[in-house]
Amino acid sequence: MNENKYNYFLDIHCHYEEINPLYLKQKLKENKIISLTASTNIQTYENLEKIRLKNIPNLYFAYGLHPDNVIKKEINDNLKDLEKIDFSKSIAIGEIGLDYKITKNKQKKEEQKKIFEKQLEFAKKLKKPVIIHTRYATKPVLEILSSWTDLKIILHWFGGNETEIDKALSKNYYLTQRFAFPEIKNIKKHFDKIFIETDFPVSYNGENTNIESVIKSYEKFCEKYDIDLTQIKKRTIQNFEKLFKIKL
User: Fold this and answer.
1) What is the DSSP-derived secondary structure letter of residue 204?
2) 186's torsion region: left (phi>0), alpha (psi -120 to 50) or beta?
3) Measured between alpha carbons, how far is residue 82 from residues 22, 96, 118, 132, 150 in Å?
4) For residue 66, what are the domain limits?
5) Peptide bond preceding 129: is omega within 30 degrees of 0, i.e. cis?
6) Cis omega (within 30 of 0) for bond into 182
7) What is residue 33's three-state secondary structure?
8) Is 105 exposed, middle or buried (0-12, 13-18, 19+ CB in 10 A)?
9) Which of 77, 62, 78 is nearest to 17 (CA)?
């Protein structure tokens, strides 16, 4: 990186698998953005692998099977998909976790759990951080993670209550802020565990997001918590380098 890395916006969680690589490269460069894009199923993994081979500067990859997609297949097919993923090409395992909003079926919940824990095994073996999805499943996710004390955890857009947020922070988990949500009390004490994201292309307040929406996400964060933009940009870059052992 030829210029000051602390001038960059870091989007710790997004999904770029449908973006044209040339357009993506241009947008990241123009807006001084560093991004970590995550897969959700075998198709998005394959698309992201094609993008990865383009060697776009400041673009990193997380690979995994999202719980929404896990319930759409039989358990053996999910296990076969995991065998096809080359996790060594990623810097993190994700987006993985549990989602109980999309299914009330006990068997499907158990299958989600099995695939989740299988991917945690990959993360432990490869010594990679994990990016966790926890919708309507905060308690069971935290219970599962309590047994994986040697893993580095990012709780993406974590919707836990204040007690659960405090518990996550006490375990040194990283939490993400998406347009200054969810609220974290005394956040200035926890800057060493904070990242900012867009979850592109997921909409925000009914509006479409885009690659450069991370700028707005940072601005919302600074406005809500009365934080200097330069300060939080530097802090998130430092957190990224420490967590992933990457020198930007």
Assistant:
1) B
2) left
3) 29, 12, 9, 17, 22
4) 5-244
5) no
6) yes
7) strand
8) exposed
9) 62
Angstrom distances, CA of residue 153 to CA of 19, 158, 179, 207: 27, 12, 21, 29
| 4-25 tens-digit pLDDT | 999 999 999 999 999 999 999 9
Structure tokens at 117: 């824990």
Instruction: Report the CATH number at residue 53.
Output: 3.20.20.140
User: Which amino acid is located at 57 in the chain?
Assistant: P
Please list, in sequence order, all residues whose beta carbon lies within 8 angstroms of the beta carbon of residue 147, skipping any fewer than 6 positions away.
none
Q: What angle do CA 237, 242, 247 make, to 5 degrees?
A: 70
Max Cα-Cα span within the chain: 52
- Between helices 75-84 and 42-52, what is the axis angle to 10°? 10
Q: Tell me how many domains the chain contains.
A: 1
pLDDT tens digits, one per residue of 167-205: 999 999 999 999 999 999 999 999 999 999 999 999 999
Cβ atoms < 10 Å from Cβ of 40: 22
Burial classification of residue 88, based on how many CB atoms lie within 10 Å of its CB (0-12 exposed, 13-18 middle, 19 or more buried) = exposed
Beta strands in 56-160 (DSSP E): 59-63, 92-97, 130-133, 153-155
Tally helices (H) and strands (E) across the chain: 9, 8
Q: For residues 19 and 10, what is the distance between their CA atoms, to the nearest angstrom?
A: 18
Low-confidence ranges of the chain (pLDDT < 50): none
